[in-house]
Amino acid sequence: MLPPLRQPLQTLLQDAYNPGKLAFPSFEALVLSDQEAYAEKVRAALSRQTPAIRDFYDITAIANSGFDLTASDFVELVGRKLAADTGAQIDLSKGKQLALQERIQGELHGVLKTGESFTLDASWKILEVIAEKIQERGD
Prior knowledge:
- By secondary structure, this protein is mostly helical.
- It contains five helices and two strands; from the N terminus they run ββααααα.
């Protein structure tokens, strides 16, 4: 929904015959903006029929990076994404929350760094604010 960005990319693979040189030259690719990628993550967390705890973990990480997930332009983009997905329904039910809570240990255990913990509460509260703003806007 937003224009793609041109981003330079390069491999980490080193040339075996020329130490210190890359195996392939850098190149440009079209990529989603951070705002669009984050909006897609929020859309998925709000509406995915089979909830994925990784979406909520990522939302917490995005919020911790300083990105304002409740900014009006961002919420408007999420609303547009939900509207474009004809089958999408916002689901922040207690049943979904309980299902996600049960998945934390099994699905995030290998992702969390040593000593890192994750609680669903922070991302759930952010999504509640976003859902409320979308509903107020009528998106």
